[in-house]
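Major allergen Mal d 1, pasting as requested.
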Amino acid sequence: MGVYTFTVIDEASSVAPARLFEALCLDNHNVFPKVVPFIVKSVDFVEGDTTSVGCVKQMNFADGGPYKYMKTKINELDVDKYYAKYTNFEGDVLDNVLECVVYESSIESTGSGSHYKLVGHFHTKGDVVYTLEDAKMGLQSMQVSYKAVEEYLSNNPEIYA
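Structure tokens follow.
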């Protein structure tokens, strides 16, 4: 098994870190279907009923897209430091070449907003070589989702205020 690491998102934002963290990490099961319904149809809790360490969520993708679903387990969560680590461990997004993808999400305060960084560690099956090009479709969906959530929060300053 190999591990290939890529930076998925590395962006400055005018949105405060607490609001961004709430939307992207803690309440994404409500936010994503509302803000990017063309990507995420729904998010269901499989284990647990709130975003906490050990919970498992199933993200169901919009009809007509290339993927149906993925399951994610929260490994680490530090609300005070705006840090989350989670693993995508099941679903057709793994394309039969990945064991799992471990993501590390961190948000830092910048004084005028925040800086969001999302890094993915792609764990392959066997001797599969995994490139940035292989990950491109999924990464683009994540980038589009991030930008849509950021815009949603910017346009609705009362949400998670």
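Note for the archive: The helical segments are 17-26, 28-35, 132-155.
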